[in-house]
Here is the input.
Amino acid sequence: MSTDTVSPSPHAEAEINKSLSNEDKIKFLRDMVRIRRFEQISLKAYQQGKMGGFLHLYIGQESVAVGSISVCGENDHIITAYRDHGHALASGMSMNECMAELFGKATGCSKGKGGSMHFFAPAKRYWGGHGIVGGQTPLGAGIAFALKYQDIKGCCLCYMGDGAVNQGAFHEALNLASLWDLPVIYIIENNGYSMGTSQKRSSAYPEAGLAARAEAYGMDWDVANGEHIYEVRAKTWEAVQRAHEQSRPTILELATYRYYGHSVADANAQKYRTKEEIEKYKNEHDPLNLWRNTLLDEGVITEDLAKEIQQEANEEADASIKFAEDSPFPEDSAMLQDVYWEVDNDTESGKTGRHFF
Ligand SMILES: Cc1ncc(C[n+]2csc(CCOP(=O)(O)OP(=O)(O)O)c2C)c(N)n1
Ligand SMILES: [Mg+2]
Here is the structure.
């Protein structure tokens, strides 16, 4: 762990950050440490053959989910892609329900039938977990539409990768979001790569960044550094206020970095970027170190408290592995449940398969 003094972030003075209590700040550290530990230990379990399917790790990007979700209120909603563990835990989901989902157990948040890419918690306004690149972007617009339609002052934070900006569905969503004044915020988590393809090899964009594509739709946009909690909160809050007060969409591009391969099955993880690049990010841009050192410098935490927070996260993650291992697999009879609400609820359309007309 680096203990260098960090230069104070200019965003510490933003209104949304000045009002933070020490407890709030400590919670952000705790949440980031919990997310990282959850994923470190899930990787271990994956390598031991305890779970199947995909596993896309968020390690290195934690400040984006924790910082942005921390400004959300009770009518704000979250939706994201398949790299979804961080957003789920930051939304208040428990490690137990998430780990059990990875293990395919009936106690998982999606009853063991979704796995890593499909964490869901509607009661916490967390709408997944989507595997089709860009597939969540029209859904994010739809959630925002529903809020507006019901006259609820809220918004939808819709997260996506830098690769998703080239999907047609995203552009259709942008068009409607702007045309219909929808309170949706597209947060591009720009980690520089789409699987093994760098941003430069996959996207045409002006120097200002990918978010500048918003110009074509008359939308507001911004580009910021996603590694610092203060900056992420300040920039997200501007967009949330725009959504709440003016019912207008925003594209917010946040620079970040993933330390592991695209997924645990990324056989080329060492080929499309250098070890030096990865080390540089780990050593100089790690969001956990950055925030921990900020809090040490501010006198909000001591080294002992930082260790205690890590220890607690380790214990919570270990307990979640035990919970997952001890949980049952879903019954065979549950195979066809939770596919269509209409079928589960025996409605006329569920019985006939006719949903329209
Ligand atoms: C429509 C579609 N095309 C291709 C894929 C395969 N695929 C899965 S993830 C991915 C890369 C996406 O990269 P990015 O949007 O930058 O997100 P990141 O993985 O960096 O978080 C691709 C091409 C897919 N899941 N869906
Ligand atoms: Mg990416």
